[in-house]
Fold this protein.
Amino acid sequence: MTIHPTAIVDASAVLADGVQVGPWCTVGPSVTLGENVRLVSHVVIQQDTTVGADTTIHPFAVIGGDPQHNGYKGEPVRLEIGRNNLIREHCTFNRGTPQGTGVTVIGSNNLFMTGAHVGHDCVVGDNVVMANNATLGGHARVGDKVFLGGLCAVHQNGRVGQGAIIGGLAAVTRDVIPYGSAWGNHARLRGLNLIGLKRKGYGKDQVRRLLAAYRELFEGGGEFAGRVDQVEADYSDLPEIVEILTFIREGGKRPLCLPNAE
């Protein structure tokens, strides 16, 4: 463990083996840094935050800051970050709120590019990429392996399902299905994340069937609820389609992002 002489580390902070705290960093009360965490320089970890092993945080990031919520009055709330995350310059991650879950949760193996923001009470999965200045409003939920394009914004309480891709500058005011591709202002569902599926090793036949199910679900005739039931009957052997249908049926606090939804 190495702590630069210019760094300030609160007496209640817990630093594991191999931690590096660089110049002009501040590590506040009730902060836990896992093994081999590296704070490059000028990093602020405000308080009540856990950072998992092998995570690197770059200059001018503010991690575990107070929630940006008018109702917050200093109550004990937390931020929990998993392992092996790369957090670049000027990122801001807020703790939870008493009005929400009281904790913001970020998974492992994620890349947060410059200026990414994770609001209070958010849940971010594993293997997520948030490009420059991508923003999550409070209570947003982002599944595993999601790509959020630069300068996009997910509305508070919004959901982005596993494996989805959001285009740059998109205003995401509606829930985006797993494996979906959404972009525009306001964002519309434009199809499936074909690039992501191919990168994950999906073959042509698998992609063809997923596309057929997507078209039946979102471009077919009749009532949407009836199409959901029909797609379940026709494609129940595809776990990705089952996941999409489950996501739809669970619902959320935001409406569903659809191809014709502005």
Notes: The longest helix spans residues 204-219.
